[in-house]
Amino acid sequence: MDEVFHKICNSNKYIITCGDFNVNLLENSGLCTKIITLFKSYNLVNLFLEPTRITPTSATCIDNIYTDVVPSHKEIINLLDSDHCGQLITFQIQNKIITKKNITVNPKTAGRIETFKTKLINNLPYLSTHNDLNHQYESFFNMYCNQFNSTFIPKTISVNSNVSFSEWATIGIHKSRTQLYELYDEKIVVNTAEFNLYVRNYSKLFKKNCSVAKSRYLSAKIKNSTNIIKTT
């Protein structure tokens, strides 16, 4: 199941997993922690924590739905011709919304840089010959800014604001995330100051490593691109 989820996550699809897992979520057991941690490592949460199999001697929560979709409605269906209850979830189907934002850049291509150099050279003879150094500097600075702004004209482009986790996350990042989820689950039981500090520090280190991994991924993507300006 872990291998299947890993493959599906790389496709950026929504996931809904349901069935009789034979693991009672109402028990505080190692097997219960293991299955919850597995699903959480892929951002899948169980939707029910109520008895889904009821017999004259027991009431267990072994049937469930694990998903990364937020349902608009969920309910347990009783009175079936079985000692298992049914689970029903309702959710709206819609196209995945890709959030975009506009940014302003100054494209600095090789051609524009050469044009800028030529403009500077052609304008140098016409600079102020005033004896005051401040006046000379101001004249040069104004000329430089005018030529820069007229050569590197700002351009507004629309870009995606998010990069998928599966695109830049390394194997180590995936393992660290799994470990972090396990620590969060353990924190419910082991609630000591020392352990809480350890989890907090591990979380900070994980976020730092994520930032480095994403930075390296984007740098490599830009470096290996055939159109560096557009990729940037």
Topology overview:
Blueprint: H1 2-9, E1 16-20, H2 30-40, E2 45-46, E3 53-54, E4 59-60, E5 63-67, E6 73-77, E7 86-90, E8 100-105, H3 110-123, H4 133-151, E9 155-160, H5 165-168, H6 171-189, H7 193-223, H8 228-231
Helix pairs in contact: 2-6, 3-4, 6-7
Could you tell me the mean pLDDT? 86
Our estimate of the beta-strand percent is: 15-25%
Shape: elongated
Number of self-contained structural domains: 3
Structural class computed from helices and strand pairing: alpha+beta
Q: Cα distance, first to last residue?
A: 37 Å
Given as residue ranges, the uncertain stretches (5+ residues, pLDDT < 50) are none
CATH superfamily of the largest domain: Endonuclease/exonuclease/phosphatase
How many H/I helical runs? 8
For the secondary structure, the number of strands is 9
Rg from Cα: 29 Å
Look up the CATH topology of the largest domain.
Deoxyribonuclease I, Chain A
Architecture (CATH level 2) name of the largest domain: 4-Layer Sandwich
Largest sheet: 3 strands, antiparallel
Helix amount, in percent? 40-55%
- The order of strands across the largest sheet is 1-5-2
Give me the strand/helix succession.
HEHEEEEEEEHHEHHHH
Write up this protein.
There is one protein chain. The protein is elongated, with a radius of gyration of 29 Å. It has a 3-stranded antiparallel sheet with strand order 1-5-2, with helices on one face. The chain has a two-stranded antiparallel ribbon with strand order 3-4. Strands 6-7 form a two-stranded antiparallel ribbon. Strand 3 (53-54) and strand 4 form a beta hairpin. The chain has 232 residues and is an alpha+beta fold. It is 47% helix and 16% strand.
